[in-house]
Input
Amino acid sequence: MKAVIIIPARYKSSRFPGKPLERILNKEMIIWVAEVCEKVLGKKLVYIATDDDRIHAKVKEFGFQTISTSELCLTGTDRVAESSKKINSEIYINVQGDEPLIKPQDIKKIIDEKLKYPNQVVCGYTEILKNENPLDKNIPKVVLNENDELIYISRSLVPGSKDKNLLNKNKFFKQVCIYAFNKRELNQFYMFGKKSTIERLEDIEILRFFELNIKIKMVKTTSGSLAVDQKDDIKKVENFLKKNGKKN
Output
């Protein structure tokens, strides 16, 4: 089945304006992400979806394709949904532009899972490591059932327990923002026309699929993923890259 990767990129982020063009070592963050995606499907099947001329210009410098989207898009997934109207494919992979440490093999795992479950949204997750704080509101925590389907996702600590000893022994998991959709799922998401109540409260876009009764299959990815949610995260990513010998 044909797949494409679409990277939504917004310049006017309320929490971190200009984030896609923030430099990590010697290169803009959006380019780090695009080059990982290129290793999976090749440059011709990677698109950066944006409404900002500065992002259009920068990614074109590196030979990547762009898709123009409305500045009124509510979320990155809405931006991907808009793009899907211009790009014909069977599988649309949404890779968030603030995940510079994602690995090509994890994107491949998401694609493979979507082939197995074509009528479920697919999303990545991984364990929260010891050097991360599960109480951090910038980290969306996920709760799965025994079929690896998403039960809930929250910026609060979930699952909870009144037994502190049990809670201290529990492993917590976080979302990794690699998604897989078909065109119908994206169209339903977009046509909802607004953020759902719980989506707006948590500020987590995937929650809108709960309102649409679309199941979300979760795929465990490799550890080490670090989303850039705030300025301080840039230094953490740079330190990781230096430690692993990646300078450009």
